[in-house]
Amino acid sequence: MKYLMKTVLIFLLLIAGILAFQVVVPEQSITMAVADTTYTNPNGSSELALLMREMQQYSNTAKADVKAGKTPAPYPKEFDKIHTAKISESMTKSEYYKSFADLYIMSVKNYTSSAPAERIETYNNMVNSCLACHSQHCPGPVPVIKKMMIVEPVK
């Protein structure tokens, strides 16, 4: 498991290096309120945007579960749709998208099967996989994703 975690970390660092040479152009966005949460959503209600909201909810629940010492919820099979979910017509998936999607799926599966002593690390790896992709594709959610990290020690 430690080898896998080191591999994921190296992959994330590699992606971060690639991203350091990318220029992100801000996009026009629409802000909307859903269930007392405000989303800045440049993709409207695309299939991928809706899937990402499910992933956000899973991560929020996972963070609470880690802090409470609970066993992770099983891997949601609908997350496999990350490869095929349609995006809005104004957006495109870069050549790196498939790699980011694969990394995300792997990180969620690692989190769901992790031992209690590895939960914070595997949870934060899952969040970092979101950050890696959103730093490249759709930077709007980055501040929200960063808040998902567990930085304080869990008792």
Strand tally, please? 2
Count of helical regions: 5
Strand content: 5-15%
Share of helical residues: 40-55%
Unreliable segments (pLDDT under 50, ≥5 consecutive)?
A: 17-37
Gyration radius, rounded = 15 Å
What does this molecule look like?
The protein is mainly α and 155 residues long. The protein has one domain (43-155). The protein has five helices and two strands, in the order αββαααα. A two-stranded antiparallel ribbon has the order 1-2. A hairpin with a 2-residue loop joins strand 1 and strand 2 (37-40). It is globular. The model is unreliable at 17-37 (pLDDT under 50).
Strand-helix topology:
Blueprint: H1 2-19, E1 31-34, E2 37-40, H2 47-68, H3 97-112, H4 119-136, H5 142-147
Antiparallel strand pairs: 1-2
Task: Offer a concise description of the structure.
This protein has five helices and two strands; from the N terminus they run H-E-E-H-H-H-H. By secondary structure, the protein is mostly helical.
Kindly list the characteristics that best describe this protein.
155 residues, mainly alpha, two-stranded antiparallel sheet, 5 helices, 2 strands, globular
